Amino acid sequence: MDFTRLDCLEPHCLAPMLYSANSSLPMQTTQAVRKPEGHGPAMVHSADNAVGRSALRKASMRLLPLIGAGYCIAYMDRVNVSFAALQMNRQLNFSATVFGLGAGLFFLSYAACEIPSNLLLVRFGARRWLARIMVTWGLLSMGMILVRTPVEFYVMRLLLGAAEAGFFPGVIFYLMQWFPASQRARAVSRFYIAAPLSSTVMGVVAGWLMHQDGRMHLAGWQWLLLAEGLPAVMMSAVFLLGLPDSPETARWLTDAEREWILRKLREESEAHGKRHGLADAFSDGRVWLLGGFYFCVLLAWYAYAFSAPALVQQVTRLSTAAVGFIIAGLGVVGALAMLGNGWDSDRRGERFWHIVTPLLLMAAGYVAVGLSVSPLIVLPALVLVIGGTMATQGPVWTIPAEFLQGKSAAAGVATINMIGILGGFVGPYWMGVSKDATGTLQRGLLTIAAPVLLAAALIAILWQRWPPGRLALRADSR
Q1: Measured between alpha carbons, how far is residue 183 from residues 52, 97, 194 in Å?
Q2: Which terminus of the chain has fewer CB atoms gathered within 10 Å of its CB, N or C?
Q3: CB 37 within 8 A of CB 43
Q4: Phi, psi for 26 (deg, rounded to 5)
């Protein structure tokens, strides 16, 4: 027997050959010796995939519910004045313009503090900085019950915006440190689902809280602001104790899982030649195009969000509690649209049409709302508005991570959101002016179709200049 031809000299390989040599059976009937299973490239790749699935499953389960709960509270504290206005405007003699200006001022201070806040998150870590943001805005949100004059309303909204600044872009940057590009739209959608679901929660509880009018000498709108500000203070402690700053500090990851996440993100960075410096974020045309896109989307969204309760009550003539349940139902639609579109975008590996198609549906919804006062038309049109808005969020927030990393990613995401959040000032203020000028919300909402179509045009320009495959420019082209 020629032992030099053996692939393996281990006993489990030699035994069959020795048996054949000493048996009466012909040697040619002996089966070829195989290597033990589990050493081939396919098995190594399968094991690596199993480690990756485990790492991403743990990150999703541990991080996204916590972050989503925090953003749900943030969003409620940001727009709960839309429900409070049903009583507050009448009791404090606020005109639609006064309310619209105050609602919008939140976004000016938010935008002004956004980039510094995101850079401080990088400096101090997500755990401490996000907890600090939450406790500050929670206390200020509860302090809104002391407002009596337009000036006080303006000041408190400015302070609330400064306090909350950086939470959303900070979370987007944070998720970029955990999820590879192929998983990012789903991750963003699962966290951002808190926005439409916050409308559901707020709609369900707002009617009951507003009916506490007079209890303990507080108006119903004061009970609403007080009750929805307290959870932020409580949740800050949960963030401080339960949120790891990065995969390196996550105790619930194994060493193999931690290394898999870091390796995947490192490979993406090296393959795409991502930019790292602060100046890179501010000089990249894609950042400003995405900022313009987001400005248009948030202008439209907050024009709707701060008008929705009054609009629904105007066309349906229902009670505050019934209006709350309708808003809650619309929030569920938005959540489903966000999850479904984000999942399909990742599954297909396609972003452009998963952004543009919802925008076109949004525009159609605003046109329908603007031209009708019938609830049979307005309510289905609002489904298009909220569904289209929420459906864009997952796919669009995967784009910055394609060409930015490190401090440039923190600054770039904050810049995009800073430009976009200014639309949150323009939208509500425009609706207030339009309402005082025309006596109805419909005309103002009709005009909102224009910025939505502009947002679609900006995404088309982005894809034309940096089509898929060139959106993340190679390092050698820098």
Answers
A1: 11, 43, 18
A2: C
A3: yes
A4: -65, 145
Angstrom distance (rounded) from CA 447 to CA 394: 26
Cα 77 to Cα 70: distance, rounded to the nearest angstrom:
11
Between the CA of residue 120 and those of 130, 136, 165, 444, 477, what are the distances in Å?
10, 15, 11, 38, 31
Pairwise CA distance, residues 115 & 278, whole Å: 11
> What is the value of pTM for the model shown?
0.74
Measuring CA to CA, how many Å separate 1 from each of 21, 27, 36? 7, 10, 21
Identity at 174, one-letter amino acid code? Y
Determine whether 386 is exposed, middle or buried from the number of CB atoms within 10 Å of its CB (0-12, 13-18, 19+): buried
pLDDT values of the chain reduced to their tens digit, one per residue, 478 residues: 444 444 444 444 444 444 444 444 444 444 444 444 445 555 555 767 889 899 999 999 999 999 999 989 988 888 888 889 989 999 999 999 999 999 999 999 998 898 888 889 988 999 999 999 999 999 999 999 999 999 999 999 999 999 998 898 888 889 888 988 778 778 888 888 888 888 888 888 888 898 888 889 999 999 999 998 999 999 999 999 999 999 999 999 999 999 999 998 888 776 654 544 556 667 788 889 999 999 999 999 999 998 999 999 999 999 888 998 999 899 899 989 998 998 898 888 888 999 999 999 999 999 999 999 999 999 999 999 999 999 998 898 888 877 776 667 777 887 888 899 899 999 999 999 999 999 899 999 999 999 999 999 999 999 998 876 544 433 333 3
Three-state secondary structure string covering 232-251: HHHHHHHHHHHCCCCHHHCC
* Residue in the structure block whose two tokens are 């806040």: 117
Residue ranges covered by each domain of the chain: 63-477
Instruction: Domain 63-477: give its CATH superfamily.
Output: MFS general substrate transporter like domains (1.20.1250.20)
Closest residue by Cα to residue 337 from 386, 284, 391 = 391
Q: Angle at the Cα of 382 (from 438 to 95), degrees rounded to 5?
A: 30
Element of type H or E holding 161: helix 150-164
Helix-, strand-, coil-residue percentages of the chain, each rounded to 5: 80, 0, 20
* Cα distances (angstroms) measured from residue 64 to each of 57, 70, 176, 213: 10, 10, 13, 36
